[in-house]
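During the first year of the project, the team set up a workflow for recording each protein of interest as an amino acid sequence followed immediately by a discrete structure-token representation. This format lets reviewers and collaborators read both layers of information side by side without switching files. As required by the reporting guidelines, we include two representative entries from the current panel. The first entry is reproduced here exactly as it appears in our internal archive.
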Amino acid sequence: MSKLMNPTPAPQRQAAPGPFFATKQRVTHVVFDFDGTLSWLRHGWPEMMLDTFAPHLPPGQEMHDPVIRERLLHLILALNGKPTIQQMVMFQEYARSHGSGAPEPERLRASFQACLDGHIEARTARISSGSVPVETYVVAGARALLEHLRGLGLRLYVLSSTVQHRVREEAALLGLSEYFGERIFGSPADPAGYTKRAVFERILREEGISGGQLLAIGDGPVEIADAKALGGVAVAVCTDEDVNGSGICDPFKREQLLAAGADVAIPDFNAALPLLAPLFGA
């Protein structure tokens, strides 16, 4: 993981946060999740994961059963933000607890990853060929928000559970790298022991800031809970997995992210600026 760059001193104006936010400090550092928060390249991944699990459900269970489907979707999204292998371990334990077996987690992960990679490659090809604009796969309103935050002089980061080199490649493809420079952090090739919490703590330590100056924006419970535990502000982005910019919060994400401690939940960034502006004293 690259060394964090030295901080650029930010003006110390006091924010007057809006009603959603308890902090009285001005936010100076913003940490974004990547997939589902800035990038829409992996949209639909929960359905792909359910499809991976479907052939291995215990006898008598079917994925088209709404009770089974909802139960597994909740379990999948509860682990969003952690390395994918943990969701595979979860499903193996689920199958065993219902008296059935399931493939080893790594075999499940490889199957899911192959499916996901196929979709990513097809979407990347569409961008590269010019058959679709790059904004098709940037979460609605994200670029305008990034431009605004950069103009305010804030320090912007990406923190993802996706393997680091993939995050950086995809950020470059989507034209998002310029907002973050070297501050794009992903999972190491071997994710054992990797936690977002450790990276959050490193940012605070190396930047010399308090938790109250940190804003985390993401669609996974992990980054939400970690930011709140450190005294930061957390915004849940409950992106629609089917229609980018629909303005509709995914109900499963919304429920879980608010339960994880998010200060507020939004469907995308189209109306985010007025909501967030008080945090930056702008």
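The second entry, processed by the same pipeline in the following quarter, appears below.
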Amino acid sequence: MNKSELIRTLADENALNADEAAVVVDTFFDSMRNMLREDNRVEIRGLGSFKVKSYEGYAGRNPKTGEMVNVAPKKLPSFRAGKDLKDFLNS
């Protein structure tokens, strides 16, 4: 399911027009992004939790040329499925 399919499903199941559903979905995603940007954890009961993992920089190697390169420190989003979702998928 992509974002437009989510908007269409939300609109169909809740008697909303597509523009109203798009505002709801965009607000939800924006709120999640803002919380993650501030290094806060986002937990959605029944689904799972999102958090940001920080990785230190390191010296790596370009696999094509073998040249040494410095990889900058970075932050990446991480998702961990909740027990309810795992149980649902395995039932």
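For the second entry, the following points were noted during internal review. The helical segments are 3-13, 18-37, 83-89. Residues 28 and 74 are 25 Å apart (CA to CA). Both points are flagged for discussion at the upcoming steering committee meeting.
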